[in-house]
Amino acid sequence: MPAYVAEINRRKLYLEHACPSMFAFCVQRFHMSEAIAVKRIRGGRAATRFPCVLGMIGRGELHLSGLQLLAAHLTEDNHKEVLRRARHRSMREIEKLIAEIAPKPDVPSLIRALPRKKTELPLPIQTIQEEVPAPRSAGPSSAPLKPRTRPVSLSPRRYKLQVTIGEETKDKLAELQALLSHQIPDGVPAEIFDRALDALLGDAKKKKAAISDKTRRKQNTGETRGRVIPAHVRREVFKREHNQYEAELEYGAGFMERRRQSGSSRARSG
User: Fold this and answer.
1) pLDDT tens-digit map of 55-114
2) Of 76, 75, 68, 132, which is closest to residue 94 (Cα–Cα)?
3) Contact 65, 250 (CB under 8 A)
4) What distance in Å separates the CA atoms of residue 248 and residue 227, rounded to the nearest whole number?
5) Confidence at residue 193, expressed as pLDDT on a 0 to 100 scale
6) How much is the pLDDT for 38?
7) What are the C-alpha distances in Å from 77 to residues 73, 112, 218?
8) Domain extent listing, the chain
9) What distance in Å separates the CA atoms of residue 208 and residue 204, rounded to the nearest whole number?
10) How far is it between the farthest Cα atoms of the chain?
């Protein structure tokens, strides 16, 4: 598809169908959604500039969603190296690659009241948009939510996170800013959240360790029967299933199946 779009766009064949632009041609003649049309057009234009991407897409080394993100950052000087690093990468990995080659500055801390709709109860709601340091360890994320809640890469090891909080949470934040003013003079929410996550994570790990220890004691005393699957095996299986599920949501089941078949073929030939 990118090759056809690239050729139609290059030769302006859409004019023969009484369409003023390639976008109108894709939407009106092929009944694409606006988002899909933009993705195809950007991919086609990138293929015109750098024909090597057609082979990568054909071999399943690069998907159109990733190419759309990369297109604006590819140049004659960097396209070979950037495309090499983008091979077989997920959307999130490509976002990190772009954050590295085209870093953005940290977003400013902002707390403001959201406008109330007429049907809403008169409860004050606050929103906070904040830069968040990269987590110490990255695990699998949940499927994308609406509105989008996962951190967005700005630059290497810097992320933007946007959330909505209630009045009580805003008051807790203000109280912590006051109590920690000698340690965090500017009261930067990102630093406070990082400390709060450290404390919560430490507490959760202690509780998890205690539960695991109780389970082991029961096993040693013979109180459990049957085959016991170690915890690390269960975690690894869950992580693998979750990653496959999330990838199929983002790239489609067909694309992921081709990737798995390609990987199996390479393993057998090796």
Assistant:
1) 998 899 999 889 989 999 999 999 999 999 999 999 989 999 999 988 988 888 777 777
2) 68
3) yes
4) 32
5) 87
6) 86
7) 11, 43, 62
8) 2-101, 110-216, 229-269
9) 6
10) 81
How would you list the strands of the sheet with 158-166, edge to edge?
Answer: 110-113, 125-133, 158-166, 152-155
Average pLDDT over residues 226-250: 67
Whole-prediction pTM: 0.48
CA dihedral 34, 27, 91, 263 (to 10 degrees): 160
CA trace torsion 7, 10, 13, 15 (10° rounding): 150
**Cβ-Cβ contacts under 8 Å for 238 (sequence gap 6 or more):** none
Q: How far is Cα 226 from Cα 241, in angstroms, rounded to an integer?
A: 24
What distance in Å separates the CA atoms of residue 180 and residue 174, rounded to the nearest whole number? Answer: 10
Least confident of 77-81, 127-131, 177-181, 258-262: 127-131
Give the closest residue to 42 by CA, choosing from 75, 21, 20, 72.
72
